[in-house]
Design a protein that fits this description.
The structure holds two protein chains of two kinds. Chain A is of the alpha/beta class. Helix content of chain A is about 25%, strand content about 20%. Classes of the chains: A alpha/beta, B mainly alpha.
Chain lengths: ~350, ~350
């Protein structure tokens, strides 16, 4: 972590989606608590991984940061500027600095626009005229993401999934952003292509110094890509730590369970303990009291039901390693070797 | 010179067209990229039915637009009662003396009974008036439908609810009955009963009423399409870069809506032609002596038991036109949307 002011500072970020019901007058009868009180920071040039199972609010978080959704509560500040409820006009100067890469490369490119138009669109909207013209810049960007610059006149339907995702990356890079929110950028791609795209993103991050919020559910890819990792469960961050700390010394039972679910790469290893979680993720409309993980946690006690554990640096954690648990796991049986040091994505 | 009946002329034009188009697919070769629109055009050109229908439709529009010119060359007009002016053309019973409704070298499609007007020019002007009115209605219907549908779909919330209920109401309304019952009322608002209703007022009234009830189905269709599109990630991508709602609608959404818009337009026009003719036939649309498809069929219906010729020309022309236009609509849909191909 750098010691300068964080690029993005999120405190108490909350998003509740109203549930409407009733007849004849529809009114709000409840709320899906998709994201409930997130605190995290992203430093300049840093990559923060956001992991968690489906429906835990990862994508909602990404969309809140890019202000595609209006937060219900909390604050988002970018370089010290509060953008929580900024209007489109107020956001205009920041738009070019926070960009997004989307999950589905088949839905994120307008089928009626040429690649050139797609990539130059952001420049057109923000009135950016790079030296040498937009077309030259588009060619440059295509080259950066590893596509043939001559293809700028083609349409998205002429490209494969991986190539389309590269176009999406080029579009995000067109405005020279400082922060890119990547919402599961590789989960819709073939495994062989995933590695290429992740390596491309890594190259972009290193060479251009762009900070990333990398949303994924593949732990290996996050480990490969992110310097810091936050684990989410049911709208809350349960643990956030530097990469090696989190993978080597998981303190939250949920993090442990997640890490134990990663498939083993070596066959002749000693059979490891596999934590199987029972039951389903509770509904975010009516989350459990206290600790949200208690319904599936093997350590849960009365205290967990009454008191929500704060996200703090629990005993035995390194600085910057925060865990939200009353009874953190001890670091002895660290499942560090469980995860292949060189994940498949790097191959 | 042969009489330019639609059925005879259409295949003639088609042969020209196919000769023209057949070598063209080989020219745009060489790895050049094609837009979805170009791909659709290529598919359309390969569709024999579609090309023939398009030619028939174009032929009708050309003769409609060129009606005054054709009438001038031909030397007649649709209003002069040749039969009454020139003795010997109509018999004592009011029917043309010459066989087949008085078809002769002078009157190509014959003359009509009792008044003895020239059927050929009358039909030309009838097609002209009907197509102008129907095209006007279609343009208005499509524009209003697109605006309302896109607005409802994109804004959502209360606007969507309001527009949705208006559409429900319009679609549930027995519009044909409404036209018959309400057209005289609307006209009476502007013209006192003892005055003659000016033709332009009837036309405006017709266009207004048919537009009022016509846009609902297009509006609903587009609302659904926009609802589906606006959740797509490319719209979010545009928002993330700071695009204005106007830019999102015109640059991101509308290009993806041309397919349903075009298809709906090609289906609306023939519907409007028949509706307009139906209203004229029922006596609430254009009135004799204004040439109109429905007026002509209505007039001919009085005599069809004695001589069917007068019914044959407008009826056949209309069937050919509507059929061709509907087939064209099908082909356009197939070309734009290859997945729906039968």
């Amino acid at each position: 972590m750098s010691n300068t002011e964080p690029l993005l500072d999120v405190t108490g970020l909350t998003k509740h989606f109203p549930v409407k019901g009733g007849f004849p007058i529809r009114r709000t009868v409840g709320a899906v608590q998709a994201v409930d009180g997130l605190d995290f920071q992203v430093a300049q040039g840093e990559s923060l991984g956001l992991v968690g199972e489906s429906g835990c609010g990862k994508s909602t978080t990404g969309r809140l940061i890019t202000r595609l959704l209006e937060p219900t509560g909390g604050t988002i500040s970018y370089q010290g500027k509060d953008i929580t409820h900024a209007s489109r006009k107020q956001l205009a100067p920041i738009r070019s600095e926070i960009q997004m890469i989307f999950q589905d490369p088949y839905a994120s490119l307008n089928p009626r626009q040429t690649v050139g138009k797609i990539i130059s669109g952001p420049m057109e909207i923000n009135d950016i005229d790079p030296a040498g013209g937009r077309e030259k810049r588009v060619r440059e960007l295509l080259e950066i993401v590893g596509l043939n610059p001559e293809h700028f006149n083609r349409f998205p339907h002429e490209f494969s999934g991986g190539q389309r995702q590269r176009i999406g990356v080029a579009r995000a890079l067109a405005l020279e952003p400082k922060l890119i929110v990547a919402d599961e950028p590789v989960s819709a791609l073939d495994v062989s292509i995933q590695a290429q795209v992740v390596n491309l993103l890594q190259k972009v991050q290193e060479e251009l110094g762009i900070a990333f919020v990398f949303i994924a559910h593949d732990l290996a890819i996050v480990r490969h890509f992110s310097q810091r990792v936050a684990v989410m469960y049911l709208g809350k961050i349960v643990e956030i730590a530097d990469r090696d700390d989190l993978y080597g010394n998981p303190r939250h039972p949920y993090t442990r369970a997640l890490l134990s679910a990663v498939p083993e790469a070596t066959v002749d290893d000693t059979p490891r303990e596999r934590i199987r979680l029972t039951g389903d993720v509770p509904s975010p409309i009516n989350p459990p009291s206290g600790c949200r993980f208690r319904t599936r946690c093997w350590k849960a006690t009365e205290k967990c039901a009454t008191e929500a554990p704060p996200l703090v640096q629990v005993e035995g954690n390194k600085p910057g390693h925060l865990t939200a648990c009353h009874y953190p796991e001890t670091g002895n049986s660290a499942p560090a070797d469980r995860l292949d040091k060189t994940p498949r994505a790097a191959a | 010179m042969t009489p330019p009946t639609p059925s005879a002329a259409a295949p003639l034009e088609v042969t020209d067209e196919t000769v023209e188009t057949s070598p063209s697919p080989s020219t745009p070769k060489g790895g050049e990229s094609r837009s979805p629109g170009q791909l659709a055009w290529r598919r359309f050109k390969r569709d024999r039915t579609g090309v023939i229908s398009a030619c028939v439709v174009i032929f009708f529009f050309v003769i409609a637009l060129a009606a005054p010119l054709i009438a001038k060359v031909y030397g007649k007009d649709p209003y002069t009662t040749y039969g009454l002016n020139t003795p010997g053309l109509l018999g004592d019973n009011g029917f043309p003396v010459a066989p087949n409704g008085g078809i002769s070298g002078e009157f190509w499609f014959g003359i009509d009974p009792q008044l003895g007007r020239d059927v050929f020019t009358f039909l030309l002007y009838a097609i002209r008036n009907s197509l102008l009115i129907s095209t006007g209605i279609t343009v208005l219907v499509v524009v209003i439908g697109v605006v309302m549908g896109v607005t409802a779909g994109y804004l959502g919330g209360k606007t969507d609810w309001l527009i949705g209920r208006v559409i429900d109401l319009l679609l549930a309304f027995p519009s044909q009955l409404f036209f018959v019952a309400f057209t005289p009322v609307v006209l009476a608002l502007f013209v006192s009963p003892d005055e003659n209703t000016p033709v332009w007022l009837t036309v405006v009234c017709l266009i207004g009423l048919l537009t009022l009830f016509g846009w609902a189905s297009i509006g609903r269709l587009l609302r659904g399409q926009v609802l589906a599109l606006r959740e797509r990630e490319f719209v979010e991508a545009a928002k993330v870069t700071g695009a204005s709602p106007a830019r999102i609608i015109f640059k991101e959404l509308l290009p993806n809506l041309w397919t349903p818009i075009l298809i709906q337009a090609t289906l609306t026009l023939p519907l409007m032609v028949t509706t307009e003719a139906g209203l004229a036939f029922l006596g609430v649309g254009l009135q004799d002596p204004t040439p109109d498809w429905g007026v002509m069929i209505g007039y001919a219906a009085k005599f069809y038991q004695d001589d069917i010729t007068f019914l044959l020309f407008p009826g056949l022309a209309m069937v050919i036109f509507v059929l061709a236009f509907n087939l064209l609509g099908d082909s356009v849909r197939d070309a734009l949307d290859p997945k729906t191909k039968r």
